[in-house]
Amino acid sequence: MSVTQEAARDELLARELAAAGVEGVRALVVLGSGLGGFADELEAPRVVPFEALASMPRSSVPGHAGRFVAGELGGVRILVQQGRVHLYEGRGVREVTRSVRAAARLGARSLVLTNAAGGLVPSWTPPRLMRIEDHLNLSGEAPLARAEAGRGCPYDVPAGAQLDALAVELGITLERGVYVGLPGPSYETPAEVRMLAAMGAHAVGMSTVCEAQVGHALGLAVVGISCISNLGAGLSATALDHDEVLEAGQAIAADFIRLLSAGVPRIVATAC
Predict the structure, then answer these.
(1) Which residue in 106, 133, 201, 216 could disulfide with 154, CB within 3.0 to 4.6 Å?
(2) Active-site residue, selected from the candidate residues 39, 86, 216, 221
(3) Cα separation of 53 and 66, whole Å?
(4) Is 86 a catalytic residue?
(5) Is 51 among the catalytic positions?
(6) Quick one: which H or E segment has residue 2?
(7) Rounded to 5 degrees, what are φ and ψ at 162?
(8) pLDDT, tens only, 93-122
(9) List of residues 6+ apart from 49 with CB closer than 8 A
């Protein structure tokens, strides 16, 4: 599909969301595996399932509800995406990033990306939260069109500093580090875990990097948060599976929700 055709689908998603009552949003929050409970914090929620949107690809991954929820949080109107689609589901990079482009068309100026990730630091006992300071895009995909600018680190420094300060206020441990995005769907081997750590990464997952690059190119203030749900292969005696990821999300849900509930309005204010 051509870039022009893909852009038309992005525009169509924005129009479909607007027709469903999703307008005037200031931020898009994308929730990763096991982290969907944050959407319950919104006031006057308006739910729009992916299935109701002809231009929004469906997620097939457990722990991803597959719907948008628009509502108020701390006096700010935001759009929450409960679940995402991934490259390993056979989706193209424009499909993976379509909601980011549509949200920007609807007025969003901030983008909060969350994910479940494997830890590459042996001393970081899961579950715990990590703010993404930078990333390595090893997904094999370049998400930007030739005409789009995407220079430098995509993660917004002032917004990140706001989140760091808030975590201290709330007594929540928030690590900082580099996230590496791989295509998936298989988990990494012990040798790959050692390689990624040697490259300077602190957490590894199968999402986020393309969305962050697109958001940055569109001028959004991008913040990323990883839930370290397990240690990478070779760093733990237990085998890895997706159920462990979902359980970790439940275990750290209270801190995650407190941090985002107070943090998203501050991030939006920083972006204005």
Answers:
(1) 216
(2) 86
(3) 11
(4) yes
(5) no
(6) none
(7) -60, -40
(8) 999 999 999 999 999 999 999 999 999 999
(9) 66, 67, 68
**Does pTM surpass 0.85?**
yes
Q: Is 33 a catalytic residue?
A: yes
- The answer to whether 202 is a known catalytic residue is no
At residue 151, the 3 state secondary structure works out as coil
Contact assessment for residue 248 and residue 34, using Cβ atoms and an 8 Å cutoff: yes
- pLDDT tens for residues 55-86? 999 877 765 678 999 999 999 999 999 988 99
pLDDT band at 240 (very low <50, low <70, confident <90, very high): low
Residue 137: strand pairing partners: 181
Q: How far apart are CA 139 and CA 158, in angstroms?
A: 27
Q: Is 242 a catalytic residue?
A: yes
Enclosing H/E stretch for 18: helix 3-19
Task: Say how many C-beta atoms besides its own lie within 10 A of residue 54's C-beta.
Answer: 9
Strand-pair category, 110-119 with 221-231: parallel
**What CATH number is given for 3-271 in this structure?**
3.40.50.1580
Choosing from 18, 72, 88, 269, the catalytic residue is 88
Contact between 93 and 3 under an 8 Å Cβ cutoff? The reply is no
Catalytic residue among 27, 104, 116, 159: 116
pLDDT, tens digit, for every residue of 20-31? 999 899 999 999
16, 23, 89, 192: the active-site residue: 89
Taking residues 28-39, report their average pLDDT: 88
Catalytic annotation on 102? no
Please state the domain extents for the chain: 3-271
> Is 116 noted as a catalytic residue in this protein?
yes
Could you say which of 115, 137, 207, 226 is catalytic?
A: 207
**What phi, psi does 246 have (nearest 5°)?**
-65, -40
Does 216 participate in catalysis according to the annotation? no
Task: Write down the catalytic residue from 155, 179, 230, 248.
Answer: 230
